[in-house]
Design goal:
The chain contains eight helices and six strands; from the N terminus they run H-H-E-H-H-H-E-H-H-H-E-E-E-E. By secondary structure, the protein is an alpha+beta fold. A hairpin with a 3-residue loop joins strand 5 and strand 6. The radius of gyration is 20 Å and the shape is globular.
Length: 243
Amino acid sequence: MMVSNTAYQNQLLQMDVNEFAYFLMNEIEKEKLLILDFRYISAEIEAWWSSENKELPVFMLKAKINYIFMKKLNREHLGFFDKVGLAKNYIAGICVRNIFTTDSPKLALVVHESLSELFHLSDIQYEYEEHKTLFLKKQAVEYKDWGSGYGEITPHSDDLYEGLNVDYLSLTTCRDETSTPTRCFFPKHILRDFTKEELFRLYFLKANFKSGKNVKKHIQRQRNILSYCTKYGFRFFLDFRID
């Protein structure tokens, strides 16, 4: 029998502090980050790109590389395209490595757009914010403003101030000769030292999220810190940036 989201929300509200804290931590403790190595199709990608007409628009190049991914990836890797972010799969994110080695921003963009589509991530283009192609410069270790050097970007979810419900972030990194890591923080790491009472309070807590300095207009939205639905499980909306 299917349980509706409203019915499940009511069940959560009827839990006492101990029951809710146990259920929450038990669910998020299972979340994991998968690291997939696509090295075995890297030569195919490189050969395709070396002979491809690079003047074609991105959407056409994306269709071509989509075909390569769907034809050449093994069955296990193909299966992950439909599992990210869904409740009971407990796959919070996937890191794909060794897709290509050619130093090409356009190839990186095509791969980014392709994998985003295959993982069912919708690319939202806001009229007041341009997409950015960034890479670490020679002065990376000396320049700390976020978005350019190695950065001091404090942990955050993206676009929490938007009217749309943006759930996942697709990020492609390359051209990094400084081996600067991109860190991911899971809710289980952030909430590890919370008391049961504090965990219970999270479910009722709201916050005002405001657009930052890279957005050309001021946007604000109030939303719950924590929500739950049967399709995606627990979802957290957290932003620790100060700008």
